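Researcher: Please translate sequence to structure tokens.
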Amino acid sequence: MGSAVFGGRTIRQPTVGYASQSTIAVTASDTTTPIIQTAEFTAGSVDVPAGSTITSLTIYGSNDGTNFYLLYEMGADMAALAVLASRTTRLPDEAFGRPYIKLVGDAAGSVILNLGY
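Model: Translation complete:
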């Protein structure tokens, strides 16, 4: 928890951070990549490990966990989410507008998914 001084009083503030971290086996197909439950989260990022050949992620969203659709950001195709090995990439806000998502890579491999509030 952080704190701030307001009117001479110290007020405790919750620290914004990640509540969940897991390794996800990303595939190059939306039918074989795992389903990720995001209903309780409002922010997230993806860490791509060193040596990974994944350079882009396509994000699919679902309201029911069964039917997945390509997400769009203000009319732009979300398929262009570029990622790099040894880097962290913030997931767009649209990834948290559905209770379930899938991350589909341009190559198979693992990423570390960080979800928070």
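Researcher: Any highlights?
Model: The two ends are 14 Å apart (CA to CA).
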